[in-house]
Amino acid sequence: GSSAMWRSALSVPLLLCARTVLGCTRPRTSSFSARRRPSFRSRPAGGRAAPYASPRRQRPTSKPFNDDEGFWGEDVDDEFGAKTGASLYQDDNSDFLYGVSPVQAALRQRWRPCERLLLQENLQLSKRKDAGAILEVQRLAEEHQLPIQRVDKGTLNGLCGNRPHQGVVLQAQPLSFNRISKPPAPSSDAGGVAEDAPEAGRRNVWLALDEVTDPQNLGALLRTALFLGVDGVVVSEKNSAPLSPAVSKASSGAMELMQVHSTKNLVSFLDDARAGGWLVVGAALDNSVLPAQLDSQRPTVLVLGSEGRGLRTNVLRACEQLVRIPRAPSGTATVAAGGTDHSSLVDSLNVSVAGAVLLYALL
């Protein structure tokens, strides 16, 4: 009985103490704390808190990036649903060419139906080496009676996916491949990149690309083809990079000045080429010869494979010969400080670089 009385006597002060502690930690209610406070993003590790974002629409910390498809800028709409920034020009049926050279080439060639020219506001042409080209772009746009609009840099960034636009963006219709099933006769002009018929004694050369998917490589190859005067370029219809603004930029506008062909079945295209007298040569390391060992009197189709796996097996079988680029002996620049030569770690070239070397050797 005495122990029960002691337990009941102790429980009273303990209960009062607990109520006191809970009362101290309970938040006070006031007119300020009862108001709805804005929500903030979580603090990133090792940095300051991110800026305020309303709970209704929080912007992602990073945006999806695709080499072939840009995003439409930061501001899709405001809180009233009105389009702002790059979304004002959003159009699923349009390309946004960016960069001075691609825009200048597109306006000169006049293959694309164009909608408007967007220039960055406050362009200081007096400090630009390409001021003459930009002035020509403006003049060509006026001749085409295109609307010319001055916009902020953020809008241009959004339209071209934060790529280097140089303050110039052209909204135009997309370009498409010219589909063919077989190459032209070797003696005729290919109607591709060469402006004039092949020179006397000069070999006819076509470039065939087997599933080259990287837009930077495709653009660089088109630039080389135009510069060296290749007679035609054909790509496999499936699993190839499209003729996108990224390709046009990488080609420095060459894509706008040449006709790029596609074929549904590259193997059949190469078989028809061999039957028509073309020498079909694939770029590969094994069982290959040097460019100088090829027959210089025969018109040639040079076939390049994808960046990762090279030529597909059935494409290899369609080639009459294989060609390689000889690797030079190691120079003094390849020797490490300790005197050990590790240059064998680099045993190949990028497909666009290899294409440039082989095309120059063939032409």
Automatic annotation (TrEMBL):
Against SUPFAM superfamilies, the record matches this protein to:
alpha/beta knot, L30e-like
Any one of the GO CC terms: mitochondrion
Instruction: Write down the CDD domains for this protein, in alphabetical order.
Output: SpoU-like_MRM1
Please give the Gene Ontology molecular function terms for this protein.
Answer: RNA binding; rRNA (guanine) methyltransferase activity
Location, primary (coarse class): mitochondrion
An example of a Pfam family matching this protein is SpoU_methylase
> According to its UniProt record, where is this protein located?
Mitochondrion
Q: What is this protein called?
A: rRNA methyltransferase 1, mitochondrial
Protein source organism? Coccolithus braarudii
Lineage from the top down? Eukaryota, Haptista, Haptophyta, Prymnesiophyceae, Coccolithales
